[in-house]
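Its record is quoted verbatim for completeness.
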Amino acid sequence: MAEVTRKLGLSTTAIHGGAAPPTPGTGVTTPLVQSVNYVQETGTSEGLRYTRYGNTPNAELVQRRLAQLEGSEAALVLSSGMGATACAMLALLRGGDHLVSSSWIYGGTRTLFTDDLPGMGIEVTFCNPLEPRGWRKALRKNTRVIFLESPVNPTCRVLELNSLQSLAHSEGIALVVDSTFASPVNFRPIEHGVDVVIHSATKYLNGHHDILAGVVCGNEPFIDEVRRKMMVWGQAPDPFACWLLERGLKTIDVRVKRQNENAMRIAEWCVKRPEIAKVHYPGLPSHPDHEIAKTLLDGFGGMMAIELKGGGPSAIRFIHALKVFIYAASLGGVDSLVIEPRYSSHEHLTSEERAKIGIPDGFLRLSIGIEDAEDLIADIEQALQQ
């Protein structure tokens, strides 16, 4: 892309960011270089390219673009969101260190923190993110990282960051945010003092339910360390996944804005339905974090949840009656999905444990796509009537 002096908008960056200036005879779209190894110069290790190193053409282009979208010095694409989280934590923590995590996190991340990190000698403390002074009380002399998700999966809570980043930086602790639910269209945590941003690129960044990938964004020395962990633990993505991710990114601005609009309309409609006990969507004035969301987010997102009266049996009947929504895990794509966390991300918890963290039986997570909002509302309405 030709050099420009003014800062480009998000959509322009998503399409052109990090690309070389166009020259006659080159393709308008990025070519896929589906090769694991590359011809190397003799007598030197300089310029060594290898897919597991994350430095091949398709990986490097999309990594530059993601760094520009998030406002970070550098970014690294890995083979999954969990690979991104794991390698980021391994780059930040050593045996004898302590991690403080929000208790409101994705089930896979919780398993990493409860089962695997302690086996490496890393202590983990979970904190209720709403408890007054809870973060500070959880800190120890060996605390190195504070980790949280915002917005939270699957309850769509939005966490306040100003006091948390002040606390982390005053204590020399890295603040890490999983921003998968928001995408850079709605939220760029680095602008709010966050040190490291993680995404499951499978979701909104790709947006088409057809790749598995993760992203870590941060300063260059940190990303270099994450890269070393990725190389050793074998978490590098395939070139084709990088190519599809770059392709998907080109439409992220229009996709996410349409999903924001659809979700807002659906949430406002659901609030009026007597069959629905509760609607979780940060764009609603009734949402407990609505004021925080208005301050932090540029859009309220495509994720929402509803709680059906009648609990689990009502949820099963509702799901079976849906015609447009697809019952499937994951999120953030152009197709609208519905899932029950009790049978997916939070199946490891008992019914009582789920209810305690705001996920009772009858709780359904909706990933709103880019279909016509009227059709999605009509689908929900006919399913409720069943």
